Structure formats: structure tokens, C-alpha cells
Protein: Auxin-induced protein 6B
Organism: Arachis duranensis
Amino acid sequence: MQEDHNKKMKVKKGWLAVQVGLEDESSEEGSTPQRFVIPISYLYHPLFKRLLDKAYEVYGYHTDGPLKLPCSIDDFLHLRWRIEKESNHHGAASHHNHHSHHNHRLPHALYNFHSC
């Protein structure tokens, strides 16, 4: 779920608003940080925990507004895709049979995000 226009929209219980974008991204081609709403369960995922550690290093614990993530939007979308793929894979064995002929292994280089 991506919400760009209404910054003050309430977030449903069990979800968390985050702001994604690198500081230097905002100067390039007019791109600005974007707001996303993610399930709280992401906070327990190892890949997301790494991003939270980096957010602490960059911004500290006390920030105003949504949780800021020091990550490019493209890398965040890829991270979200990986988390969703893993949770769907573990949650539905019958769903796995439909995609067994596809091998969605990622190249080793993508395991370390460029900006995350």
C-alpha cells in the first residue's frame, strides 16, 4: 500500500507508516521520499531488521512523523517483494505447486542492497 497524497491518513491497527528515500535522492530529478504502510510483522524479518539498524545509525531513535528508512525506493520495493515472497512461500504449500517450475533465486549481488 502506497500513500503519497494524504500524509495524515490513519494507519490501521497492525500496520506501520514508513518514509522511504535517500536524502541525496531528493535533489536528483525531483524525486522525494515516499510514504508506505507496511505490516508490523516486517519488523521481525532479518532483512528488515538490518534496515532498521541502518536507520538508527543515520537518524537515531527520535524522529518526527513516520519511521524514516535510509534506502532507495527501488531497493525498498525489492526488499518488500522478498519479504512477501518468503511469507507467501511459508504460508501456502498448495500455492507453491503452481510456481514450482519457476526458480526465483536472486543473484548473490542482490542480497546486499546498494543503498539499504
Residues 93-114 have pLDDT under 50 and may be disordered. The chain is about 35% helix and 15% strand. Residues 73-91 form the longest helix (19 residues). Strands lie at 15-20, 34-39, 67-69.
